[in-house]
Amino acid sequence: MSDDHPTSGSEVPAEHAPGERAARRPLSLDPVELGFTPRKPVPWLAPFLLISTGIRTLLAMLFGAYLDKRELQNALDSKIARQVGPDGGLWLDYVADLGDGFNGTYSVAYLLAQRELEVDGHRLPRAQTLVMGGDQVYPSAAYEAYEDRCKGPYQAALPVAPPERPTLFAVPGNHDWYDGLTAFLRLFVRSRDRHFGGWGTGQSRSYFAVELPADWWLLGLDDQSGSYLDDPQLAYFDEVARRLGPQSKIILAVPAPTWVKSVDHPTAYDSIDYFIRTILAPTGAHVRLLISGDLHHYARYAGPERQLITCGGGGAYLYPTHKLPERIEVPPKDTLSRRASATRPYDLVARYPDAARSRRYGWGIFPRLPFRNPGFTTLLGALHTLLMLAMAGVTANRTGSTEQRLFSVPLVIMLGVTLLGAAFFAKPPTAGGKRHVRHWILGVSHGLAQVGLAAAGTWAWLALPFYDWPWPLPAAAAAVVYGPVIGLVSSQVVAAYLLVAGSFGVNVNELFAGQGIEDSKSFLRMRIDPDGSLTIYPIAVDRVSRDWQLNPDESPTASWLTPKSTLTPRLAEPPVTLD
To answer: Transcription as a keyword (predicted)?
Structure first.
């Protein structure tokens, strides 16, 4: 194993950095000038996106082992990086779930790139090391999506490297895995042009180890494609472990907060527990901080040994905090692993946004669902129009048994589609955790509510003169008049279902994904002092900027765009210090 020591404060001037071209500053906000197209937030309930995402997820489940490139990475160099600031300490940033709509993503990138932030009286200089914690792009890992939703905004925030030449490390998340890590490896793991905007890329594989000041270490795991760690990755960290000892303190960056997910899926934490138990524990090293994205909020669990932090507020839609368990056991006692570590309790001590604000956000589903997801509302309108025509046909042809049977066939089909669609929307086939029955009950109840709405809509439609018009005018009138109205009403039934189901812990993700809330973003700025103390500053952004202008500052490292209204970061909780 070779060593790579990209130490902060390099003497190589930014404009002469190997493989890095000075970025020409844009003259307008036109995509041709910017070099990328700022994107709107992903409409997660758009019908075609739901279908394509479902297909990608299915393909990843079926063929993930065949697309897994981690075994092939054994042919790549196995470097251990080293990051130390000029004063013997280090400033370290962590951001995750960032490649979504431009306003949210760039607001966070802009703050990360500034020379200094003043947050609640603390002066926090720009970090010398940046860690991206997963899901650098949405909804899929296409190279164009990376350019528009991730690399482009970050280059606009920090066009070229400042003199201290900050370094970037990235952990792949599930969305980065949808193409088998192809685009991720091209962007973050490369042998030439090793830069990402003004950040130099510091890793040689999809996982990494970084030696930090004062016996701190940063380890980034890649266990997203399954519940195991591949052999080359374990061999890599075996070599890293040779450098660790009882004095070593570990920051472990992982793709998902499995300590929370294991509440419903007890085996979710097994991979991390195996890594800590078999690789790190024999060295005597102490894992002081486990950090992850994947859930788009900030939450901190404190326990007797370490802190467990979720910080996925880098740009993607807000995920609620009011359904988080107040206490968790890690590893869970009911895991199937026969050699799990000793279980210890962890308490939820901080979250952002707070529970009350998160609940208020949930009620916003009623206005946001139809207007943030017009395709979904249109689909509901089309399905309800077909269901109404089938019901109306049966109602208007009760006297003739032959005709009734002919009209009843499409009605049975539409009723089946409605009930099955509502049930599968609650995800019972994949909800293999402890709430499996709850999914079925809520899903079927939602389907019956939609059928009841269809019956009421049919009664109202038959009371109008449209149905007596000569064919095909009734169908045309239904599409033009009935469809938009029933689509909007049906979307409110879906919204009510999501709000009720969310209170039972079902479809919580859809409750907030359907709203696409851009505000309440977060990231971490951490300081390792030369004496070995680690201070964590959880930075919250209550409202992202929605209007941007060209930056009059023409210096090479200045952000291309600045917010028209001031971005005001604050602390999500007081600084947390680990010794």
So the answer is: no
Q: In this structure, are residues 171 and 221 in contact, taking their beta carbons and an 8 Å threshold? A: yes
Q: What percent of the chain has pLDDT over 70?
A: 86
CB 232 within 8 A of CB 112: no
| Distance (Å, whole) CA 112 – CA 525 | 9
The 3-class secondary structure across 25-55, one letter per residue, is CCCCCCHHHHCCCCCCCCCCCCHHHHHHHHH
Residue 238 burial (CB count, 10 A) = 12
Query: Tokens in use for 200?
Result: 């130099």
State mean pLDDT over 474-489: 86
What are the backbone angles phi and psi of residue 548, rounded to the nearest 5°? Answer: -130, 155
Joined together, the tokens standing for residue 256 give: 């998902």
* Sequence-separated (6 or more) residues with CB below 8 Å from residue 213: 84, 85, 88, 89, 90, 528, 529, 530, 532
Instruction: Look up residue 216 and give its two tokens.
Output: 């701190």
User: Are the beta carbons of 530 and 213 closer than 8 angstroms?
Assistant: yes
What whole-number distance in Å separates Cα of residue 141 and Cα of residue 84?
Answer: 32
CB of 96 within 8 A of CB of 61? no
Cα(423)–Cα(417) distance, integer angstroms:
10
**SS3 category, 116:** strand
The separation between the first and the last C-alpha atoms of the chain, rounded to the nearest angstrom, is 30
**Rounded Cα gap, residues 560 and 549, in angstroms:** 8
Amino acid making up residue 240: V
**Helix H segments across 35-158?**
47-67, 102-113, 143-146, 152-157
**499 or 74: whose pLDDT is higher?**
499
Q: What is the C-alpha to C-alpha distance for residues 490 and 370, in angstroms, rounded to an integer?
A: 9
How far apart are the C-alpha atoms of 97 and 537, rounded to whole Å?
18
Length of the chain: 579
**pLDDT recorded at residue 14:** 39
Residue in the block written with tokens 């005001």:
568
Cα separation, 25 vs 562, in Å, equals: 13
On whether the CB atoms of residues 539 and 574 are closer than 8 A, the answer is: no
Please report how the helices 436-462 and 483-503 are oriented relative to each other, as an axis angle in degrees rounded to 10: 150
What is the rounded distance in angstroms from the CA atom of residue 544 to the CA atom of residue 108?
8
Rounded to a whole number of angstroms, the CA Rg of the chain reads 26
Using the structure block, give the residue that is written with the tokens 């049919």: 458
- Global pTM? 0.89
Sign of the dihedral defined by the CA atoms of residues 385, 387, 388, 393, in that order: positive
Q: Tell me the one-letter amino acid at 521.
A: K
pLDDT of residue 347: 96
- With a cut of 90, say whether residue 158 has pLDDT above it: yes
If residue 571 lies in a helix (H) or strand (E), which one and from where to where?
Answer: strand 569-571
- Please list the residues that pair with 195 across neighbouring strands: 200
The token pair that represents 119 in the structure block? 């947050």
In this structure, are residues 81 and 4 in contact, taking their beta carbons and an 8 Å threshold? yes
Q: What is the dihedral of CA 187, 193, 198, 204, to 10 degrees?
A: 50
- Judged against a pLDDT cut of 70, whether residue 22 lies above it is answered with no
